[in-house]
Fold this protein.
Amino acid sequence: MASGRSFRLKNLSKWNRCAIVTDKEGVQNFTDIFSVLMPGEFKSFPKENLYNALYWCENGNEVES
């Protein structure tokens, strides 16, 4: 398990966009700070917006309401 995690972290800089889907406010705040420090785009979404998060990862914008 640790080797799988390190593989993902090694390739983190190759991602263009990463959506963090969680209802934990602390994780959402960390994502906001983390996104400034890392290349690419990172954005948090609440669990009820899972499909919006997937759409954002694919297209770079959110689904219009």
